Amino acid sequence: MDGIKYAVFTEKSIRLLGNNQYTSNVESGSTRTEIKHWVELFFDVKVIAMNSHRLPGKGRRMGPIVGHTIHYRRMIITLQPGYSIPPLIEKRT
């Protein structure tokens, strides 16, 4: 449960929900097999594919000090047809 940080809701991720694909940011040290096992165990779904890419940290500046935020990894998880992750499809009222 510690591997997944939060779900991502962008234009692309909302479009991918129609293809039964869910997008989330995960810890940069997590592996695909760890995330796949956790998603299948916690949400009781079957994962058929996982795509990931590493996003670079953004530059930050505070006066003369220049720094950057930490990098993170984004996963796109594809589920088998007929499965879904319930908290992400509930409608707000």
UniProtKB/TrEMBL annotation:
Cellular component, GO annotation: chloroplast; ribonucleoprotein complex; ribosome
SUPFAM superfamilies recorded: Ribosomal proteins S24e, L23 and L15e
A Pfam family: Ribosomal_L23
Entry keywords, A to Z: Chloroplast, Plastid, Ribonucleoprotein, Ribosomal protein, RNA-binding, rRNA-binding
UniProt keyword annotation of Plastid present: yes
Gene Ontology terms describing biological process: translation
Record-linked InterPro entries: Nucleotide-bd_a/b_plait_sf (IPR012677), Ribosomal_uL23-like (IPR013025), Ribosomal_uL23/eL15/eS24_sf (IPR012678), Ribosomal_uL23_CS (IPR001014)
Molecular function in Gene Ontology: rRNA binding; structural constituent of ribosome
Keyword match ATP-binding: no
Compartments where found: Plastid, Chloroplast
Gene3D superfamilies, per database record: 3.30.70.330
Function: Binds to 23S rRNA.
Family the entry assigns: Belongs to the universal ribosomal protein uL23 family.
HAMAP family: Ribosomal_uL23_B
Complex and partners: Part of the 50S ribosomal subunit.
Protein name (database record): Large ribosomal subunit protein uL23c
Species in which this protein is naturally found: Apostasia shenzhenica
GN (gene name): rpl23-A
